[in-house]
Amino acid sequence: xxxxxxxxxxxxxxxxxxxxxxxxxxxxxxxxxxxxxxxxxxxxxxxxxxxxxxxxxxxxxxxxxxxxxxx
Length: 71
Hints:
Blueprint: E1 19-24, H1 29-32, H2 34-46, E2 53-58, H3 64-70
């Protein structure tokens, strides 16, 4: 196990078929640009460049409700 070897455990199983992004941030569009990240990932998916991905966002902030509505 990773924790036993002194490495942190990942929140999900690692798979080469899935692009997995992890962000630890305050959810604040004016400073962090997470809304632009959603737009960029949407465009990559529409163009067939990122078929399967998972974006794990760890954080909270004033724009969290709007962020969830964009997904």
